[in-house]
């Protein structure tokens, strides 16, 4: 929580009520609102002017002051100073919720601007100005205070009085006025489940006062109301409260006396008496963390913590945390009894500052400590030194070999984790920051060694003077440290952690679950040089990115701590630096001096009404600073933006690398993507169900040249929930398929081979991690190998998969563990097998006449048949075999797998497996044969099968008759055909088979023509009418 240098104008006036700014404004980053103290209105009691002489008889000026609100309590008609009080108004104004600016919004704004923006902040500022929103009033509370806390007396000298003879006299006009006393800090508590809300006000470095502003007293409204004439000109809002509107008890803590709360009436100051109480009854004051005269509240060190019950969101318990220079005091508000009780004390060394992260409820207290003698090997610390990390001890001669100066003072950090459901507090081992303020380069191996300066107990004056000169540069300052919440974890950030020579950022991850810390240091040139560079820097968080705004350098640095703490050296781990010049003095820029940073991602313009800007990310601007070959995919996937925008940027960078034929970088990206994908079960489940629709594209049978990102994103199927990895479906849709189809369409075999190598590499990386490739990816691998003529690799792939299935099946039968999946466990396997048959039978392919291609096609069809039979799709397997012209294989499958009941008359065969389909397949095969003998053998084999498979289609049926024309026939021939025929009849009706009825014609030309004996015999066998 921070007090703004200039009061923020948060409400305006109107014609009936003139505007008057508040007396003070504070920005509270928990729960992200502004707390405003209303200015004291002018009244007839605001002051009393008196004419007094400089020299009076008693040596004092005449006149007295009167309290502006002299109200009598109860029935006492005699007024006293104890009965006077003031009513002040505190309000809280929240930042309105709005949809975060994304790239689409910024693009629309940029297109409408007369001149292009120089930075992303310009576009965001323009979008905010076009849709201004006022702060929303969240809390409005009247608080009764004694005059000592509500007002402060000011004296104004109006100057000399001009007499009638136009000469100056010694008489002056003095004006005694009362103005509002401004606390150091004012902070509202969260609203509890019983409706209570409290306000804490810090008036000095040792005193705070707590008042209840909402609660059960709101239900009690006495009829007698207060006098309202004194506040009739109040500029803000609301009327004076009635009697009983505020709780009749306040709690005051004065650490100059003792740390225990004292209860008093709202209109009175408490009477403090030094107490001998301790937390456990036997501890001394020092053990309790309280040192009279030394203990004081650190700036901003007053916090509210609301706790709930286990597995409940209601806030049932309220704690007040007071961070002092010697200890952290925890007070519990007993709302049932109306008591504020000190419950816990956490003592620490003399603290210089503290940092608090509200979301994770992490409190870190920093205390300076000086490094002691080289010989002793210990540091001068407090009671927690046994938990601190050991210091690096080096020899005297090693220090003399380097000219670099090192810090003689470091900051020791104590961590407290407060719970949301329990009063228990977790801690971490004490760690130090500021220990690596300088890094010296070794001349021997050109590597960097980390050295610490240790101040000895016996040093001469010149050595001490040297250390004092360097202390300004070496010692870490509180404003160089920040405590941030990134990806749900707490990080302690130290700017300039490697000294003024090398700059750098120190990142310390505070792992509450593991009870340990992780440390990383990264070099940044922006933090080199003198202290003014650090003083001009603000640290915030935008979309879980560490954002460092440097007004001195006019540069914004974005750092992804997830990549910094990753052990994978292949991902992008550096910071993204954006240079954004401030421009004109009148123009407001993110680095403008008129802007005041408000955590985590707001900027306040203190000019005029005080606009508030929320900074949004512009991925396009950020990615311009990242080298093209850097693996930025994990960084993009961690952003909280629409997935279409993220995938568009990934597709663009992939496309650029593919156009450059940078296979090395692409393989590096694929390894990272596959590694992350193997750890995400949700992504694998999504791919198995959603990749089936890509099979037509993966077959490359109908290629397209369309590689437009907007069109592809418009038809892409994306996960309905957030997945932090890139799925196989997305890789296919935005990378592999568009470029493969475009290359096939253009006939660029080199491009097709390049994409095939990329797809195969991705397939292999998934197999290495025991992750099954989705059917669309398998189909694409088969298609590109088939298109590029890599028949040996394709046949090896198919044989390896079949062998793997055999091993997996045997392990399953023996109840042995196996990580592989069978083909029938993968969704879309049947559709995949059908697509394989289409690829193998594609007549448009150039591989039709290649003998090796024909052999590979047969293996493809056999592979597809195995899959279909394993999935239980026997009818579909037969259909595919017949479509591929594999008549004999289809007959074998039917006889072994289906075996229909030939005695049943109502057998209904599946579409594509009927007798006519077998006959048509036989005809197609016969057309490819050159010998009539082979054709006859094929049809004879088919006739034998149909007699077993479906004999009803071969039997002659009188219901299925056909007229046969007999022009040119003799009477004897007509009587042979039909004895009942007469001489004047030109046609005769004869029965035929069901097969002949469905096909209508017989391929006579394949068997020597109609007059051929072979042809007549076969027509009779299949029930076709003999042609004359």
UniProtKB/TrEMBL annotation:
The cross-references to InterPro entries, in alphabetical order and at most eight, read: RMC1
Disordered: where is this region?
A: 43-77, 214-234
Q: Where in the sequence does UniProt note compositional bias of the Polar residues kind?
A: 46-56
Composition bias of kind Basic and acidic residues appears in 215-226
Record-given protein name = Anaphase-promoting complex subunit 1
Organism, per UniProt?
Answer: Stephanodiscus triporus
């Amino acid at each position: 929580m921070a007090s703004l240098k200039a009061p923020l104008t948060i409400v305006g006036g109107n014609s009936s009520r003139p505007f008057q700014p508040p007396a003070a404004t504070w920005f509270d980053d928990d729960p992200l609102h502004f707390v405003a103290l209303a200015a004291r209105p002018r009244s007839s009691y605001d002051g009393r002017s008196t004419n007094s002489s400089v020299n009076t008889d008693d040596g004092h000026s005449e006149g007295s002051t009167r309290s502006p609100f002299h109200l009598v309590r109860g029935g006492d008609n005699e007024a006293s100073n104890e009965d006077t009080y003031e009513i002040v108004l505190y309000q809280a104004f929240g930042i309105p919720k709005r949809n975060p600016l994304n790239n689409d919004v910024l693009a629309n704004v940029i297109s409408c601007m007369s001149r292009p923006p120089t930075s992303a902040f310009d576009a965001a500022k323009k979008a905010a100005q076009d849709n201004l929103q006022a702060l929303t009033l969240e809390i409005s509370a009247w608080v009764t205070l004694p005059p000592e806390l509500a007002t402060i007396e000011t004296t104004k000298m109006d100057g000399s009085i001009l007499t009638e003879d136009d000469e100056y006299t010694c008489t002056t006009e003095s004006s005694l006025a009362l103005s509002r006393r401004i606390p150091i800090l004012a902070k509202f508590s969260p609203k509890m489940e019983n409706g209570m809300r409290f306000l804490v006000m810090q008036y000095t470095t040792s005193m705070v006062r707590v008042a209840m502003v909402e609660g059960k007293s709101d239900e009690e409204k006495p009829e007698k109301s207060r006098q309202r004439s004194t506040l009739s000109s109040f500029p803000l809002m609301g009327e004076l409260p009635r009697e009983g509107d505020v709780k009749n008890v306040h709690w005051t803590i004065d650490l100059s006396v003792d740390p225990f709360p004292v209860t008093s009436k709202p209109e009175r100051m408490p009477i403090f008496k030094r107490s001998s109480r301790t937390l456990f009854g036997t501890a001394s004051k020092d053990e309790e963390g309280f040192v009279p005269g030394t203990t004081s509240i650190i700036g901003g060190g007053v916090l509210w913590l609301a706790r709930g019950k286990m597995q409940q969101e209601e806030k049932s318990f309220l704690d007040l945390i007071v961070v002092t220079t010697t200890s952290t005091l925890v007070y519990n508000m007993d709302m049932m009894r109306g008591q504020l009780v000190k419950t816990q004390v956490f003592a620490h060394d003399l603290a210089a500052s503290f940092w608090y992260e509200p979301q994770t409820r992490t409190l870190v207290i920093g205390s300076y400590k000086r490094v002691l003698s080289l010989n002793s090997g210990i540091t001068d610390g407090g009671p927690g030194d046994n938990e601190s990390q050991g210091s690096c001890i080096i020899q005297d001669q090693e220090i003399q070999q380097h000219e670099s100066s090192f810090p003689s003072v470091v900051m020791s950090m104590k961590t407290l984790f407060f719970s949301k459901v329990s009063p228990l507090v977790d801690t971490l081992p004490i760690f130090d920051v500021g220990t690596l303020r300088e890094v010296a380069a070794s001349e021997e191996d050109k590597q960097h060694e980390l050295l610490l300066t240790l101040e000895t107990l016996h040093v001469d004056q010149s050595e001490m003077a040297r250390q004092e000169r360097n202390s300004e540069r070496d010692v870490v300052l509180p404003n160089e440290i920040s405590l941030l919440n990134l990806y749900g974890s707490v990080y302690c950030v130290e700017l300039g952690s490697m000294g003024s020579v090398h700059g750098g950022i120190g990142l310390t991850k505070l792992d509450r679950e593991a009870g340990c810390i992780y440390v990383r240091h990264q070099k940044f040139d922006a933090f080199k040089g003198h202290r003014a560079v650090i003083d001009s820097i603000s640290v915030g968080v935008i979309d879980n990115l560490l954002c460092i705004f440097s007004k001195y350098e006019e540069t914004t640095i974005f750092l992804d701590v997830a990549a910094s703490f990753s052990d994978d050296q292949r991902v992008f781990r550096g910071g993204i630096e954006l240079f954004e010049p401030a421009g004109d003095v009148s123009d407001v820029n993110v680095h403008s001096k008129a802007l005041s940073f408000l955590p985590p991602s707001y900027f306040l313009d203190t000019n005029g009404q005080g606009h508030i800007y929320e900074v949004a990310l512009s991925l396009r601007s950020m990615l311009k600073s990242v080298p093209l070959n850097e693996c930025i995919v994990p960084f993009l996937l961690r952003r909280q933006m629409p997935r279409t925008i993220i995938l568009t940027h990934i597709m663009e960078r992939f496309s650029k690398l593919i156009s450059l034929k940078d296979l090395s970088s692409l393989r590096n990206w694929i390894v990272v993507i596959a590694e992350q994908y193997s750890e995400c079960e949700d992504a694998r489940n999504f791919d198995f169900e959603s990749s089936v629709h890509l099979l037509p594209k993966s077959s490359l049978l109908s290629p397209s040249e369309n590689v437009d990102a907007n069109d592809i994103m418009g038809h892409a199927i994306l996960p309905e929930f957030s997945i932090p990895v890139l799925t196989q479906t997305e890789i296919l849709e935005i990378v592999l398929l568009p470029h493969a189809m475009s290359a096939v369409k253009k006939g660029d075999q080199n491009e097709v081979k390049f994409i095939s190598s990329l797809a195969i590499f991705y397939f292999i990386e998934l197999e290495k991690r025991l992750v099954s490739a989705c059917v669309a990816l398998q189909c694409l691998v088969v298609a590109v190998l088939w298109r590029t003529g890599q028949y040996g690799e394709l046949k090896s792939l198919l044989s390896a998969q079949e062998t793997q299935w055999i091993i997996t099946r045997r392990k399953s039968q023996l109840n042995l563990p196996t990580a592989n999946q069978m083909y029938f466990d993968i969704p879309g396997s049947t559709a995949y097998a059908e697509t394989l048959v289409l690829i193998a039978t594609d007549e448009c392919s150039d591989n039709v006449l290649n003998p090796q291609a024909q052999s590979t096609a047969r293996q493809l069809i056999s592979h597809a048949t195995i899959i279909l039979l394993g999935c239980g799709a026997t009818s579909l397997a037969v259909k595919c075999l017949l479509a591929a012209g594999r008549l004999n294989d289809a007959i074998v499958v039917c006889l072994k797998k289906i075996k229909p009941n030939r005695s049943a008359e109502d057998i209904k065969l599946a579409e594509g497996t009927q007798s006519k389909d077998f006959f048509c397949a036989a005809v197609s095969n016969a057309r490819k044969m050159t010998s009539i003998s082979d054709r006859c053998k094929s049809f004879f084999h088919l006739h034998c099968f149909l007699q077993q498979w479906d004999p009803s289609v071969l039997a002659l049926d009188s219901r299925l008759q056909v007229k046969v024309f007999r022009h040119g026939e003799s009477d004897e021939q007509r009587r042979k055909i039909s004895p009942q025929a007469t001489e004047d009849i030109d046609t005769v009706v004869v029965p035929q088979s069901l097969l002949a009825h469905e096909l209508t014609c017989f391929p006579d030309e394949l068997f020597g023509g109609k007059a051929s004996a072979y042809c007549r015999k076969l027509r009779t066998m299949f029930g076709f009418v003999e042609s004359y």
